[in-house]
Amino acid sequence: MTLINSKLKTQNSKPTKPHIIVRDLTMAYGTNVIQRDLTFNVNQGDIFIIMGGSGCGKSTLLRHLIGLQTPAKGQVFYGDVSLWDMDPDERERFMRRFGILYQSGALWSSMTLAENIGLTLEEYTDLSHSEISEIASFKLALVGLAGFEDYYPSEISGGMKKRAGLARAMALDPEILFFDEPSAGLDPISARLLDDLILELRDSLGSTIVVVTHELASIFAIGNNSVFLDGETKTMIATGDPKKLLAECRNPTVHAFLTRGEPGKG
Hints:
Blueprint: E1 4-5, E2 18-29, E3 32-43, E4 47-52, H1 58-65, E5 73-78, E6 81-82, H2 88-94, E7 98-101, H3 113-124, H4 129-142, H5 158-169, E8 176-180, H6 188-205, E9 208-212, H7 216-222, E10 225-230, E11 235-239, H8 242-248, H9 252-259
Parallel strand pairs: 1-11, 4-9, 4-10, 7-8, 8-9
Antiparallel strand pairs: 2-3, 2-5, 5-6, 10-11
């Protein structure tokens, strides 16, 4: 197997540096290996796509990156810090630097949008109620939901729920945002608006963003770096800019995925 690395140089002349470093990572449930020998970098400011077919381990990899699932082997570094060499309390504190948008949005149905955002701030800061309310309003405005503070999740659309979930993910001003299938269940227009929002947030906040998705439109619209997980060989078979992979990758599995064709065709 040949690992295909993208050599595409970015338009930005500033050198990029790895924000997340994954080395020789093996993921397993007991004796059942999901993926093995994963080695890749997520650079500062990337919108990094974790892609591959259904059941290949994309969401499992995300859980390893955010500290929810222990590797069978290998390391995940944030800069020079090894996530899995920390003691549990230290790792929990470190994980507050992450913002996570779950596939369903995962909003508390009994709380307003402002209360959903404020819950994290109440838990981990000493801010006053008025300060928390002000921050919640600001975060909702960032995602285009100004004026919706007192709405409940049941009163807004699916696309708005995703944006509200994103506002909550940004509550603690994380340096890295993780999205699990952000476009799942959205119509094409809502999905495109969410993609545009992700790009705007990356550019305005300077965040590094990691996205699990199988949606081709999103992959090509927002991704500048990626890893492709193969369910058959149970390892990665490509990494790099998705548009570069589409143009140059000769692996039939990757080509079929990126064109939605049959391996060896198209």
